[in-house]
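This part of the workshop introduces the protein records we will be handling. A record pairs a protein's sequence with a compact description of its fold. Backbone structure tokens are a discrete shorthand for how the chain folds in space. The question running through the whole workshop is how a given chain folds. The record below serves as our worked example for the rest of this section.
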Amino acid sequence: MISRGSLSWAYTAFGKHLFTRFDDGRSLHTHFRMDGAWHLYRPGQRWRRSGHQARAVLNTQERVAVGFLLYPRHAEALEAAAKATDDKRRPLVAELSECEHLADELSGRLGRREITLQRYDVAMAPLDKRIAELRAELAELDSVPAAVADPAVVAASREEWIARWDAATVAERRSFIRQALATRRIVIAPADPSRPRKFDPRRIVIEEVALSPR
């Protein structure tokens, strides 16, 4: 829990994940459009949702930010994963910067005719190879998901999502469905007039949408 009187002093974003840093050493995590919702109010204004659904309240003199149904355990896993990724990235970025600096130096020496083209090619061959390797490693790190939840976290998250769905408006539920479908769509087959008039789940199919090339 963030203690009363703490001040937010920094914001760090990892894709759709925002970490609000506080001066007591804690962090508040928000996964935009996935982890609940933030509402902004004026001090004293009535909230649009029940108070028991509030997971975080940030107060300022002019505004009150209320986070409803935010899931705090995701923050721990995501921040740990982000830190681990950053620890791996740091030496790679440093080495890449050094290699690119050396490549620039060699290009400058070639331009000033301090070395021959043959010596330049010999020196640049391993350097180009290493630069490509470092860029590939960094790209692979950037493509890894931020965190993989363990079964306990998944179960707790499922409970949060059930509560979030029950408390959501119609528009918010539609948004949840759109996010879950991603590049897929729901297709409902016509009803069979010869069958009894009741819901038949076999009529509903989720299929992939073929994306047209740009």
